[in-house]
Amino acid sequence: MKKYILFLIFIGILTESCNKNDDSPVIEEEQEEIVEEEVVEEEVDIQVQDFMWQTLNAYYFWQANVPVLADNRFATQLEYETYLASHPDPENFLLDELLFTEDRFTFYSDDYKELTNFLSGISKSNGLEFGLSRIGDSDDVFGFVEYVIKDSDASTTDIKRGDYFIGVNGTELNVNNYIDLLFGENDTYTLNMASIENNTISPNGIDVTLTKQEGLVEDPILVNTVLNIGDKRIGYLMYNSFTPGSGEALNNVFADFKGQNVTDLVLDLRYNSGGRGTTAQILASLIYGTNTSDLIFRTRYNDKVQALFEPGELDNNFVATTGTENGNSNAALNSLNLNTVYILATEASASASELVMVGLEPYMNVVHIGTTTVGKNQGSITFVDDPENGNFYDPERENQINPENQWALQPIVSRVENSAGFSDYADGLIPDIELEEDVTNLGTLGDVNEPLLARAIQEITGVGAKRSFKVNMPANLISSSKLYDERNTALILNGLKVGTKSVLKEIK
């Protein structure tokens, strides 16, 4: 165990004062007494701090903007370890010392298994996905159900999309308590349901009790169907997370679309907050085509990392197969080879969802229907304390992770740009056709009358141009079951192919 010993040395100097007496003046000599050194030893475990500093010094996108991460910040190993030991709390050390002020998306965990499971779509959840909005101009909050995860605890109840709730365990929700009530430590809670009439929300006396379950795996494909409207055969896919290994399932959906001679595609990413960049490549290729010489996106790293690669090595092109990662079978893709795609995206759409939109833009007509997206133009990688592998997380090397340090970091390591060099969407992607979700008329996902899908169908067919899409009560999200946790908005990149011990700095 790597520890650092702090030595506190106390040296006392006692000086006797001079006493003066008019009758008998006697001046005492100053005496200096050296008290023996008293050594107090305090052991400070700096393994986590060392792992954090080494990782961010090597890979952090803003490494050059954080002075304490500079390569020449410490002249000696002693100076370095003294600095680490002066910050005994790893979390505060990371947040207060190491992260750049503009960084909105780096996250971490003191349990790498929990983090890696989460990023693979495995979490502790009751399966209810919901949005949260203010009630008028007040601080009161209500929730509305967006969808229910299949085979979850919520799926065994009567709760469904379009239901509302205004309290938890008898306490009304507001901007100050919704985090503790809905996202706190209680695994079981009771939602106090409500109804909306004449734009007024009020309790309806119905209660629904939900319990979070360990290891819930969400199927990211919630709805897929083909709609026959006139001479159009419109494929509709609601995809809610770019989870690893879902490329096979996506390919099967597109095989069905091809088999039914789909002419147009509506891709619903309205609640998709991100995930794997490799899965985004597969989805983009299924939509546009499999020309592997065409670039979808390029990654830009910090100067130190960027210098390790030759031009073109950081390019991510369209793909022709599902690949072999995460259980995929390297199957040939069933691409639709479309010229236009209609994408439903909102303020809950982020990261890999935005990457698909931006990556396809130079090659085809991308019609964005909805609202402005989150604005996540950055990528991250999972790191653990495994110096021999450059600290990159590799599930096949879990036995090589330092058993005394189970922390994981998911820092921002790159910025992404499309083939036209565009990466300036930190403020979100603005829709071509703006249409907010109406909490009083959420509709049924995949149904032709669901407002966002209906607007896409109108654009495709040109029929129903007189239909009104007036929004009675816009969502105006303050948070949601997904956006509350910043880990959901991650764009997960593959580990850099420079994962060697030499990448990590050694201070002499």
Automatic annotation (TrEMBL):
InterPro entries: ClpP/crotonase-like_dom_sf (IPR029045), PDZ (IPR001478), PDZ_sf (IPR036034), Pept_S41_N (IPR041613), Tail-specific_protease (IPR005151)
Pfam families the record matches: Pept_S41_N, Peptidase_S41
UniProt key word Protease: yes
GO cellular component, one term: outer membrane-bounded periplasmic space
Gene Ontology MF annotations: endopeptidase activity; serine-type peptidase activity
Entry keywords, A to Z: Hydrolase, Protease
GO annotation terms (biological process): proteolysis; signal transduction
PDZ domain boundaries: 119-197
Designated name of the protein: Carboxyl-terminal protease
